[in-house]
Inverse folding.
């Protein structure tokens, strides 16, 4: 049993969708719950840390943070990708803090030098000590790629991500995000609990509220439906469109989509935090970086097909796509902030879920399983 949730709360979360409840307020507002999530989820599960095109050449690297663990994701000389701790094994200084290109990594404190694979190359003025142990290096973590996205997992015993995703490939593979590149990105500070954003992201029920003008007419709430696998930790929200995205559309659908696929948009999550949207033509990656129960950074990346970006040397397509997603996200901000305040009110309790919120139910099953793993 989780030390942070009562038996009644857990039973409600685990009830079938028809009798299903949301998480209790403490799941969002408690720093202790976030500590437990960090231990049981963020440090054990697959976290998306970059797109392959962000580190195209050997030596290109990106510094990312998985809660309190800084990582370097770096392209090796043989073209493979490695992720490793950015913390110097000498006295704990972070070796890099941003992104760039390197032949070696130098710790800025006492100038220990590391190869791109994390091996210690040299340590100045250490000749007075015995030989350093072989594991004195930047420790590597597991890495896998899927559709151009790079995932890392701090748990060396974690099962492969790929095994979890075969059913998901059937749903989203044809949208071919591997054949897309980042066309533009926009950053947001989100001073609220990370799960509120994902819950908002994964249901179209609220199209009748904040998106009544922007989305409800195109993707009506009541047409939405969900596929997903709690066991495999992913969920897909299907949003059938009422207008054709056929040949007369501004952006042609990806070749190879079925008629159904070419007339819907999807919002998907690989739990815990990898969220993205597919339209028939393009995609948006929501890069969530939770750092506390009450704070998160969000970067929304617009992804467009390579062939579209080749003809767009001045970046206009990326700017246009970002304008669209900014408009939608800014309609969503108040309905993230509102529940964040609401969760702190003493009279707030668990709420009942709609059948249109099945993704939230699936996410909650997955979450509760991990948060009660030490039962
Ligand atoms: S802390 Fe890195 S070289 Fe000393
Ligand atoms: Fe929304």
């Amino acid at each position: 049993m989780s030390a942070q949730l009562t038996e009644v709360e857990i039973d409600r979360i685990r009830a079938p969708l028809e009798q299903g409840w949301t998480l209790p307020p403490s799941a969002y507002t408690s720093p202790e719950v976030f500590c437990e999530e960090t231990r049981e989820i963020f440090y054990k599960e697959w976290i998306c840390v970059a797109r392959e095109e962000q580190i195209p050449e050997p030596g290109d690297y990106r510094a990312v943070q998985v809660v309190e663990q800084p990582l370097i994701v770096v392209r090796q000389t043989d073209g493979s990708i490695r992720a490793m701790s950015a913390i110097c094994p000498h006295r704990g200084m972070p070796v890099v803090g941003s992104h760039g290109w390197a032949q070696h990594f130098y710790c800025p404190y006492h100038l220990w030098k590391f190869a791109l694979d994390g091996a210690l190359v040299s340590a100045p003025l250490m000749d007075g000590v015995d030989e350093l142990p072989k594991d004195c290096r930047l420790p590597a973590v597991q890495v896998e790629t899927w559709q151009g996205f790079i995932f890392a997992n701090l748990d060396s015993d974690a099962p492969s991500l790929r095994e979890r995703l075969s059913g998901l490939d059937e749903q989203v593979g044809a949208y071919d995000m591997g054949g897309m590149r980042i066309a533009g990105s926009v950053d947001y500070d989100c001073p609220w609990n990370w799960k509120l954003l994902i819950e908002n992201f994964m249901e179209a029920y609220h199209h009748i509220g904040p998106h009544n003008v922007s989305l409800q007419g195109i993707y009506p709430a009541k047409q939405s439906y969900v596929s997903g696998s709690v066991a495999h930790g992913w969920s897909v929200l299907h949003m059938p469109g009422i207008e054709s995205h056929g040949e007369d559309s501004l952006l042609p659908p990806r070749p190879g989509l079925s008629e159904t696929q070419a007339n819907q948009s999807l919002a998907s999550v690989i739990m815990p935090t990898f969220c993205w949207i597919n339209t028939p033509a393009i995609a948006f990656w929501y890069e969530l970086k939770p750092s506390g129960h009450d704070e998160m950074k969000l970067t929304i990346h617009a992804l467009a097909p390579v062939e579209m970006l080749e003809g767009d040397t001045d970046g206009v397509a990326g700017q246009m796509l970002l304008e669209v997603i900014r408009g939608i996200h800014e309609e969503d901000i108040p309905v993230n902030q509102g529940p964040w305040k609401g969760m702190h009110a003493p009279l707030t309790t668990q709420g009942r879920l709609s059948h249109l919120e099945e993704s939230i139910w699936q996410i909650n099953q997955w979450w509760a399983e991990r948060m009660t793993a030490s039962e």
In short: Residues 200, 206, 211, 332 surround fe (ii) ion (ligand 2) (CB under 6 Å).
